[in-house]
């Protein structure tokens, strides 16, 4: 009986010792935590776009897979656009997961976005950009003290080693995601932390984009780059209309053949978002490759390129 009690005590002690609060602080998903980021997009040859958005942990939810996730709300500070994702951190394994609610061709209910108990030189099968399968690997290549918001904080730097074209990001101790950069042959996106409110402590200064409580009507017709891009299989297409008008959105393949019609309706002035889930007009999954989305609004036509990776 004593041996059994000693064995149970040993197992309990080991299980408790596995929880590393320092490592877990690199991704603090506590309800009420809040971040503000600057998003900068460069696209060849001359397109430059810049936005600010916030991410806030607004609560918990139990999803249909029986697991409890934190609800993360992303809101663009210069528009009315918002969306949500669901993430959780397993304190025993140090693994951070995101619920798989937009990737139906990946046959798991969640996917790994970080392994917080990793040490320098370790690789894990994770991806923060988008998840195709379980072959994506990320390398933790450094962990050093850095000057951040007038403090010396540990910063981890990670690099996607099997995802092409490429991405890298940084996690800061006590704060979370500090920076993320993704790039391809013709496009790069950088997300950089401006402000954070974490566990009652403020870091940096709030972003002021001059937005009043009443959002202003857009003055010009503008089509934004889809996000995410590349994508698998769901992406969002955002556009602004200065006044009401008939709007038609069509997806074409690289040979100019029509793949799908996303919108054909009379739309009101303001900001709009449509989704494409990578399915063609016949209801089949489109193959990997370059596609074009074209928006016709009254007498204006704008076309942009996107990449689907299956």
Number of strands: 20
Q: According to CATH, what is the topology of the largest domain? A: YmcC-like fold
Largest sheet: 13 strands, antiparallel
Helix fraction by DSSP (H/I, runs of at least 4): under 10%
CATH architectural label of the largest domain: Beta Barrel
Strand content: over 45%
Low-confidence spans:
1-17, 212-216
Over all CA atoms, what is the radius of gyration?
22 Å
Tell me the domain tally. Answer: 2
What coarse outline follows from CA principal-axis ratios?
globular
CATH class of the largest domain: Mainly Beta
Secondary structural class = mainly beta
Head-to-tail CA distance between termini? 56 Å
Q: Give the number of helices.
A: 2
List the secondary-structure elements in sequence, H or E: HHEEEEEEEEEEEEEEEEEEEE
Average of the residue pLDDT scores: 84
Task: Write structural notes for this entry.
It contains two helices and 20 strands. The relative contact order is 0.12. The protein folds into two domains: 18-204, Beta Barrel (YmcC-like fold); 222-308, Sandwich (Immunoglobulin-like). It has helices at residues 2-17, 21-24, and strands at residues 34-43, 47-62, 68-76, 82-90, 95-99, 110-115, 123-124, 138-148, 151-160, 166-172, 176-183, 187-198, 201-204, 222-223, 235-241, 245-253, 258-267, 270-276, 289-297, 300-308. The strands form three sheets. Strands 1, 2, 3, 4, 5, 6, 7, 8, 9, 10, 11, 12 and 13 form a 13-stranded antiparallel β-sheet that branches. Strands 17-16-19-20 form a four-stranded antiparallel β-sheet, with no helix packed on it. Residues 1-17 and 212-216 have low confidence and may be disordered. Strand 16 and strand 17 form a beta hairpin. By secondary structure, it is mainly β. Helix content is 6%, strand content 52%. It is globular and about 60 Å long.
